[in-house]
Amino acid sequence: MATRQIPMLSLEAAKVAAEGAQEKAKQMGMDFNIALVDGTLQLLHFVRMPNAKLTSIQISIDKAFTAAGHRSPTSAYQNKVFLPGGPAFGIHNSNGGRFMIIGGGIPIEVDGVTVGAIGVSTGTPAQDIECATAGVEAVNAFVKRKSGSKL
Amino acid sequence: MATRQIPMLSLEAAKVAAEGAQEKAKQMGMDFNIALVDGTLQLLHFVRMPNAKLTSIQISIDKAFTAAGHRSPTSAYQNKVFLPGGPAFGIHNSNGGRFMIIGGGIPIEVDGVTVGAIGVSTGTPAQDIECATAGVEAVNAFVKRKSGSKL
Amino acid sequence: MATRQIPMLSLEAAKVAAEGAQEKAKQMGMDFNIALVDGTLQLLHFVRMPNAKLTSIQISIDKAFTAAGHRSPTSAYQNKVFLPGGPAFGIHNSNGGRFMIIGGGIPIEVDGVTVGAIGVSTGTPAQDIECATAGVEAVNAFVKRKSGSKL
Amino acid sequence: MATRQIPMLSLEAAKVAAEGAQEKAKQMGMDFNIALVDGTLQLLHFVRMPNAKLTSIQISIDKAFTAAGHRSPTSAYQNKVFLPGGPAFGIHNSNGGRFMIIGGGIPIEVDGVTVGAIGVSTGTPAQDIECATAGVEAVNAFVKRKSGSKL
Q: What highest taxon heads this organism's lineage (chains A, B, C, D) (predicted)?
């Protein structure tokens, strides 16, 4: 075959993810940068909440880039294989330094396939993960609703 | 004084601009990348419509960056002063090549002050300008509604 | 609202900070690069003292950029969460490598809000911090004088 | 000989230039970015006046860089040898795009030797040149006063 079909996160679902993350942020009383990429790893949707850090804009985008590209949460890189002396140490320098190994980037999966990712930044890694997780859960709920409506 | 107050485009208004631009895009039957920056020139909001060009993502962001920074539509640079032999030729090379002289970046002004900008890309410059203008007009209408609601 | 007001460090205050830092440098018998940014994270004022290191120019600017953007002294990143194995390790790679985790960048706060930052480089981190602190203190004294003059 | 002596613009003289340029700016009723480099082409002194364009910061620095490096005002590049079809066309792309061919960068000469340059940006090229010229003249007057005081 000359082509293959690749499922990509839709803009509609990216907006659902960003909304879910913003709602969680309001519950947390914090502001975040929230970035969504699809399977091309290119920016699809972005929201900077009022008090989010300007130095976290690119971090949020790069977390989404890394999570979608490596199909793994960016929190996974505390494993010792990525630490100095480990066989994968140095990965954070790759891709022009865009490979983020700080939690807050999470793949978005549909039917077991990574179709994009969300990246969140401004808080601690734990706070960023909490906010990003809400975004992923919002997409998962959206997928379920859509599946249900087909029945 | 140790500080000065600078008005910045709000996220709320940036979303209004992006919505206005997307509605216009649907009327035009086209998809665009739509970027909003505030007065820091940093990304505030971004939407990539499904069929928008991947190589136009950065162009849309850089159009907004240029329009907000130079407080002028990016369509202004067809003036002969910016053409070869003109005294301002070469400006498109500045800022690491981010200075966009292609139409589609338009400042957003409130009370006569540039508070941010919209940048649109994927179509011809004329199409990008048409879509970006709809975004600016949506903010202007929003500002009027808000002013009215204060009375 | 379509806009929000953001307080920004004034040029006048930035000059006061640079003067304070230069006076301290003379007391220390050393020369430094001294950079000031406002809340846009963009360069506002810069002084290279005669014997300051050329490779420290960009470091001083990036320390100010980081301190203003993350609203925290750049000396804060010795905390173990930013060390290998910690959950925020890798942050020094972000923002195209401009995120400085070496002391010498300090936010400037007015009325509890970060309005900019000073970045100092050429000496040891401890020396850079000493010089930068003098800059911050000079602004704080300036703010107090200005507040007093309003009475 | 293993070494040679190179005269470099001093910080003291750079501050004189920046002051002269700022005074002229106030007479003109405009705000500018004002950058000084010495013979290393590295930033020596910088002032961003309150209403100067953020997208002109790097332009001012690059104008000074170009004027000091090529020992020529940046307004010299309207000559047809630098235009499309001319033998030197394309020079504006060199140095990573930092070679500015827009007026407003002027070498500072002492005893017939280029020791640095001033770069000014925000206005039209003519306005930038007017402001930059005032900076150069301030240094020239400073040099004369210093020469006189030696007598």
A: Eukaryota
